[in-house]
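Raw record, unedited: Putative ABC transporter ATP-binding protein DR_2469
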Amino acid sequence: MPVIEFAGVGHTYPGIGSTPVLRDVTCRLAEHRVGIVGANGSGKSTFVRMLNALVVPSTGTVRIDGLDTARDARAIRRRVGFCFSDPDAQIVMPTVAEDVAFSLRRRGLSKQEIADRVAATLAAYELADHHDHPAHLLSSGQKQLLALAAVLVTEPDLVVMDEPTTLLDLGNIRRVRETIRALPQQVVLVTHHLELLDDVDRALVLHEGRIAFDGEPAEARTYYEGLFA
Ligand SMILES: Nc1ncnc2c1ncn2[C@@H]1O[C@H](COP(=O)(O)OP(=O)(O)OP(=O)(O)O)[C@@H](O)[C@H]1O
Protein backbone atom coordinates (compact mmCIF):
# COMPACT_ATOMS: atom_id res chain seq x y z
CA MET A 1 0.00 0.00 0.00
CA PRO A 2 1.58 3.37 -0.91
CA VAL A 3 2.30 5.70 2.01
CA ILE A 4 0.99 9.24 1.60
CA GLU A 5 2.66 11.91 3.74
CA PHE A 6 1.59 15.53 4.04
CA ALA A 7 4.04 17.59 6.12
CA GLY A 8 3.09 21.15 7.06
CA VAL A 9 1.21 21.63 3.79
CA GLY A 10 -0.28 25.02 3.03
CA HIS A 11 -1.67 26.24 -0.26
CA THR A 12 -2.73 29.58 -1.67
CA TYR A 13 -3.76 29.84 -5.31
CA PRO A 14 -2.22 32.82 -7.11
CA GLY A 15 -4.41 35.91 -7.31
CA ILE A 16 -4.93 39.21 -5.65
CA GLY A 17 -6.30 38.89 -2.14
CA SER A 18 -6.46 35.10 -2.22
CA THR A 19 -6.71 33.40 1.11
CA PRO A 20 -5.10 30.05 1.95
CA VAL A 21 -7.08 27.05 0.75
CA LEU A 22 -5.09 24.56 2.85
CA ARG A 23 -3.41 25.42 6.15
CA ASP A 24 -0.81 23.41 8.01
CA VAL A 25 -2.02 19.99 6.90
CA THR A 26 0.05 17.14 8.29
CA CYS A 27 -0.99 13.51 8.03
CA ARG A 28 0.23 10.06 7.06
CA LEU A 29 -2.21 7.86 5.16
CA ALA A 30 -1.51 4.19 4.52
CA GLU A 31 -4.98 2.65 4.82
CA HIS A 32 -6.57 0.70 1.99
CA ARG A 33 -9.56 3.09 1.80
CA VAL A 34 -9.49 6.73 2.86
CA GLY A 35 -12.56 8.99 2.62
CA ILE A 36 -12.55 12.77 2.60
CA VAL A 37 -15.62 14.89 3.28
CA GLY A 38 -16.15 18.58 3.94
CA ALA A 39 -18.21 21.56 2.93
CA ASN A 40 -17.97 23.11 -0.54
CA GLY A 41 -14.75 25.05 -0.81
CA SER A 42 -13.15 23.41 2.24
CA GLY A 43 -10.12 22.30 0.21
CA LYS A 44 -10.89 18.66 -0.61
CA SER A 45 -10.15 18.82 -4.34
CA THR A 46 -7.00 20.79 -3.69
CA PHE A 47 -5.90 18.16 -1.15
CA VAL A 48 -6.42 15.23 -3.53
CA ARG A 49 -4.98 17.06 -6.53
CA MET A 50 -1.76 17.19 -4.55
CA LEU A 51 -1.62 13.38 -4.56
CA ASN A 52 -0.63 13.25 -8.21
CA ALA A 53 1.13 16.61 -8.39
CA LEU A 54 -1.69 18.38 -10.23
CA VAL A 55 -1.30 20.98 -7.48
CA VAL A 56 2.07 21.47 -5.77
CA PRO A 57 1.85 22.93 -2.26
CA SER A 58 2.89 26.55 -1.62
CA THR A 59 4.48 25.43 1.66
CA GLY A 60 5.39 22.04 3.08
CA THR A 61 5.77 18.76 1.22
CA VAL A 62 3.63 15.94 -0.11
CA ARG A 63 5.31 12.57 -0.55
CA ILE A 64 4.01 9.35 -2.05
CA ASP A 65 6.19 6.45 -0.95
CA GLY A 66 8.96 8.97 -0.33
CA LEU A 67 8.64 10.61 -3.77
CA ASP A 68 8.22 14.39 -3.46
CA THR A 69 5.40 15.67 -5.68
CA ALA A 70 7.33 18.90 -6.27
CA ARG A 71 10.27 16.97 -7.78
CA ASP A 72 9.04 13.60 -8.97
CA ALA A 73 5.74 14.43 -10.68
CA ARG A 74 6.34 12.14 -13.63
CA ALA A 75 7.13 9.07 -11.51
CA ILE A 76 4.19 9.85 -9.24
CA ARG A 77 1.71 10.13 -12.12
CA ARG A 78 2.70 6.67 -13.32
CA ARG A 79 1.61 5.30 -9.93
CA VAL A 80 -1.34 7.49 -9.06
CA GLY A 81 -4.52 7.40 -11.15
CA PHE A 82 -6.77 10.45 -10.82
CA CYS A 83 -10.48 10.51 -11.53
CA PHE A 84 -11.93 14.01 -11.90
CA SER A 85 -15.40 14.92 -10.68
CA ASP A 86 -16.08 16.48 -14.09
CA PRO A 87 -15.58 13.68 -16.61
CA ASP A 88 -15.46 16.16 -19.51
CA ALA A 89 -12.15 17.35 -18.07
CA GLN A 90 -10.74 13.89 -18.59
CA ILE A 91 -12.26 12.47 -21.75
CA VAL A 92 -9.79 13.21 -24.53
CA MET A 93 -10.54 10.93 -27.46
CA PRO A 94 -13.46 10.83 -29.93
CA THR A 95 -14.83 7.37 -29.14
CA VAL A 96 -15.33 5.43 -25.93
CA ALA A 97 -12.88 2.66 -26.86
CA GLU A 98 -10.26 5.12 -28.11
CA ASP A 99 -10.48 7.05 -24.86
CA VAL A 100 -9.77 3.98 -22.74
CA ALA A 101 -7.03 2.88 -25.18
CA PHE A 102 -5.43 6.33 -24.91
CA SER A 103 -4.67 5.62 -21.24
CA LEU A 104 -2.59 2.62 -22.32
CA ARG A 105 -0.36 4.46 -24.81
CA ARG A 106 3.40 4.34 -24.37
CA ARG A 107 3.24 1.22 -22.22
CA GLY A 108 4.83 -1.13 -24.70
CA LEU A 109 1.64 -3.17 -25.20
CA SER A 110 0.75 -4.75 -28.55
CA LYS A 111 -2.36 -3.59 -30.43
CA GLN A 112 -4.05 -6.88 -29.53
CA GLU A 113 -3.22 -6.52 -25.82
CA ILE A 114 -4.61 -2.99 -25.83
CA ALA A 115 -7.78 -4.11 -27.65
CA ASP A 116 -8.28 -6.98 -25.17
CA ARG A 117 -7.81 -4.80 -22.11
CA VAL A 118 -10.08 -2.09 -23.49
CA ALA A 119 -12.82 -4.64 -24.28
CA ALA A 120 -12.59 -6.21 -20.81
CA THR A 121 -12.71 -2.82 -19.11
CA LEU A 122 -15.69 -1.61 -21.14
CA ALA A 123 -17.54 -4.83 -20.34
CA ALA A 124 -16.87 -4.33 -16.62
CA TYR A 125 -18.48 -0.87 -16.72
CA GLU A 126 -21.50 -1.72 -18.88
CA LEU A 127 -19.98 0.28 -21.73
CA ALA A 128 -19.31 -2.59 -24.13
CA ASP A 129 -22.33 -1.63 -26.28
CA HIS A 130 -20.89 1.88 -26.59
CA HIS A 131 -17.45 0.79 -27.87
CA ASP A 132 -17.52 3.03 -30.97
CA HIS A 133 -19.91 5.62 -29.57
CA PRO A 134 -18.74 9.26 -29.59
CA ALA A 135 -17.57 9.81 -26.00
CA HIS A 136 -19.04 13.30 -25.77
CA LEU A 137 -22.52 11.95 -26.59
CA LEU A 138 -22.66 9.60 -23.59
CA SER A 139 -24.96 10.48 -20.73
CA SER A 140 -23.33 12.27 -17.79
CA GLY A 141 -23.33 9.11 -15.71
CA GLN A 142 -21.88 7.03 -18.55
CA LYS A 143 -19.15 9.66 -18.96
CA GLN A 144 -18.32 9.33 -15.28
CA LEU A 145 -18.05 5.55 -15.67
CA LEU A 146 -15.89 6.00 -18.78
CA ALA A 147 -13.56 8.34 -16.88
CA LEU A 148 -13.26 5.77 -14.10
CA ALA A 149 -12.68 2.96 -16.61
CA ALA A 150 -9.95 4.96 -18.37
CA VAL A 151 -8.10 5.36 -15.06
CA LEU A 152 -8.56 1.79 -13.79
CA VAL A 153 -7.40 0.21 -17.06
CA THR A 154 -3.91 1.51 -16.24
CA GLU A 155 -3.91 -0.40 -12.91
CA PRO A 156 -2.43 2.41 -10.79
CA ASP A 157 -1.09 1.68 -7.27
CA LEU A 158 -3.21 4.47 -5.82
CA VAL A 159 -6.59 5.50 -7.19
CA VAL A 160 -7.76 9.01 -6.33
CA MET A 161 -11.42 9.76 -6.95
CA ASP A 162 -12.83 13.24 -6.63
CA GLU A 163 -16.60 12.84 -6.21
CA PRO A 164 -16.93 9.78 -8.46
CA THR A 165 -20.68 9.35 -7.94
CA THR A 166 -22.05 12.89 -8.22
CA LEU A 167 -23.67 12.38 -11.63
CA LEU A 168 -24.81 8.80 -11.19
CA ASP A 169 -28.21 7.20 -10.69
CA LEU A 170 -28.76 4.75 -7.85
CA GLY A 171 -27.84 1.72 -9.94
CA ASN A 172 -24.59 3.26 -11.10
CA ILE A 173 -23.74 4.53 -7.61
CA ARG A 174 -24.03 0.91 -6.47
CA ARG A 175 -21.92 -0.25 -9.40
CA VAL A 176 -19.17 2.25 -8.60
CA ARG A 177 -19.31 1.33 -4.90
CA GLU A 178 -18.94 -2.35 -5.76
CA THR A 179 -16.07 -1.49 -8.09
CA ILE A 180 -14.28 0.46 -5.37
CA ARG A 181 -14.84 -2.35 -2.86
CA ALA A 182 -13.33 -4.86 -5.27
CA LEU A 183 -10.23 -2.80 -6.08
CA PRO A 184 -7.06 -4.28 -4.63
CA GLN A 185 -5.38 -0.87 -4.79
CA GLN A 186 -5.38 1.92 -2.26
CA VAL A 187 -8.23 4.39 -2.85
CA VAL A 188 -8.56 7.98 -1.67
CA LEU A 189 -12.07 9.19 -2.24
CA VAL A 190 -13.67 12.63 -1.95
CA THR A 191 -17.43 12.48 -1.66
CA HIS A 192 -20.60 14.32 -0.73
CA HIS A 193 -22.41 10.96 -0.62
CA LEU A 194 -21.90 10.20 3.05
CA GLU A 195 -23.00 6.59 2.70
CA LEU A 196 -19.74 5.96 0.83
CA LEU A 197 -17.97 6.49 4.15
CA ASP A 198 -19.38 3.11 5.23
CA ASP A 199 -16.80 1.52 2.93
CA VAL A 200 -13.65 3.35 4.11
CA ASP A 201 -11.13 2.51 6.83
CA ARG A 202 -10.36 6.08 7.79
CA ALA A 203 -12.05 9.41 7.12
CA LEU A 204 -10.86 13.00 7.15
CA VAL A 205 -13.17 15.97 7.53
CA LEU A 206 -11.73 19.12 6.00
CA HIS A 207 -12.99 22.41 7.33
CA GLU A 208 -11.73 25.79 6.13
CA GLY A 209 -8.54 24.23 4.81
CA ARG A 210 -7.63 22.21 7.91
CA ILE A 211 -8.11 18.60 8.93
CA ALA A 212 -10.83 19.16 11.52
CA PHE A 213 -11.44 15.44 12.16
CA ASP A 214 -9.38 12.36 11.37
CA GLY A 215 -10.51 8.90 12.42
CA GLU A 216 -13.38 6.42 12.37
CA PRO A 217 -15.73 6.92 9.40
CA ALA A 218 -18.91 6.78 11.52
CA GLU A 219 -17.52 9.43 13.87
CA ALA A 220 -16.39 11.52 10.90
CA ARG A 221 -19.93 11.48 9.58
CA THR A 222 -21.32 12.66 12.92
CA TYR A 223 -18.65 15.35 13.13
CA TYR A 224 -19.37 16.55 9.60
CA GLU A 225 -23.13 16.63 10.16
CA GLY A 226 -22.45 18.64 13.34
CA LEU A 227 -20.82 21.37 11.26
CA PHE A 228 -24.24 22.06 9.71
CA ALA A 229 -26.32 21.68 12.87
N1 LIG B 1 -7.33 26.76 -9.76
C1 LIG B 1 -7.80 27.56 -8.80
N2 LIG B 1 -7.49 28.88 -8.79
C2 LIG B 1 -7.96 29.69 -7.82
N3 LIG B 1 -8.73 29.30 -6.80
C3 LIG B 1 -9.06 28.00 -6.76
C4 LIG B 1 -8.62 27.07 -7.75
N4 LIG B 1 -9.12 25.85 -7.43
C5 LIG B 1 -9.83 26.01 -6.29
N5 LIG B 1 -9.79 27.30 -5.89
C6 LIG B 1 -10.43 27.84 -4.67
O1 LIG B 1 -9.96 27.08 -3.56
C7 LIG B 1 -11.01 26.86 -2.62
C8 LIG B 1 -11.11 25.38 -2.29
O2 LIG B 1 -11.49 24.71 -3.46
P1 LIG B 1 -11.54 23.12 -3.56
O3 LIG B 1 -11.98 22.81 -4.95
O4 LIG B 1 -10.28 22.54 -3.08
O5 LIG B 1 -12.71 22.79 -2.50
P2 LIG B 1 -13.64 21.52 -2.34
O6 LIG B 1 -13.67 21.23 -0.88
O7 LIG B 1 -13.20 20.42 -3.24
O8 LIG B 1 -15.07 22.06 -2.78
P3 LIG B 1 -16.36 21.36 -3.47
O9 LIG B 1 -16.99 20.48 -2.43
O10 LIG B 1 -17.21 22.53 -3.80
O11 LIG B 1 -15.89 20.61 -4.69
C9 LIG B 1 -12.28 27.45 -3.23
O12 LIG B 1 -12.52 28.69 -2.60
C10 LIG B 1 -11.93 27.63 -4.69
O13 LIG B 1 -12.55 28.78 -5.21
